[in-house]
Design a protein that fits this description.
Length: 200
């Protein structure tokens, strides 16, 4: 899609039992279990394109991507290691750094809301979350597993600085992408009777 496609009539949804079946068993991967093969450069571009096609009040596109390959992430994990020692549980904080180095591809989604805009910051942040979810769907559609995580280094001010975020920006998620050797295990799912209020 390009500017030339603006106003183009897009296809209406059609029932797809295949898509329903995929969504019914959709499951994130444990990030540290993600290994190669990972997406090719062309597939990465496709994943980004599909992920960026997400709802966004005001057409502000209040997010940006940092595509991190293995070199950048190894350097980052090394630089973050000393900061792990000042976290509440230093052992665990160091251990989770392996989630940064294991997967073949990581897309850092940065929320970049505009303060004082008529579209509330909360809604702009929700759009970044929607992008994270759609990146996972896109990775799955190309046959890869994915994991959306944050971890302590998304909140430690010095770590956030190392990630290259500026004032007003926040980590929406690290989307790790790769291949699992073993299928993921089902986790608890909400009881919808407690979550849904049908109002005729
Ligand atoms: C915003 C957000 C932040 C998350 N941060 C972490 C994290 O720091 N560490 C972690 O192990 N998992 C994290 N997760 C992943 C969840 O713990 C869990 O693996 C995931 O939601 C599983 O969902 P699914 O099985 O429906 O795919 C995060 C998920 C979301 C949506």
């Amino acid at each position: 899609m390009s500017d030339a496609d603006l106003g183009l009539a897009l296809p209406l949804p059609v029932p797809s039992s295949e898509l329903q079946a995929r969504l019914a068993v959709r499951r994130s991967a444990p990030a540290q279990a993600l290994a190669g093969p990972g997406p090719s450069p062309g597939e990465i571009e496709r994943i980004l394109l599909l992920g960026a096609r997400s709802p966004d009040h005001g057409k502000l596109f209040p997010w940006r991507f940092v595509v991190m390959g293995p070199e950048r992430r190894a350097a980052l994990a090394g630089a973050l290691a000393p900061l792990a020692d000042r976290q509440a549980d230093p052992g665990k904080a160091r251990k989770v750094l392996s989630k940064l180095t294991a997967p073949p591809l990581t897309i850092l989604v940065v929320s970049t809301p505009i303060e004082g805009h008529k579209v509330p910051v909360w809604e702009q942040q929700l759009s970044a979350g929607a992008v994270c979810m759609n990146l996972e769907h896109a990775a799955n559609a190309l046959g890869y597993s994915a994991s959306w995580i944050t971890d302590w280094y998304s909140y430690d001010p010095e770590a956030v600085d190392m990630l290259g975020l500026v004032v007003g920006e926040q980590v929406a998620g690290f989307i790790h992408v790769g291949t699992l050797a073993e299928p993921p295990l089902e986790r608890p799912r909400p009881d919808l009777t407690a979550k849904v209020d049908y109002q005729p």
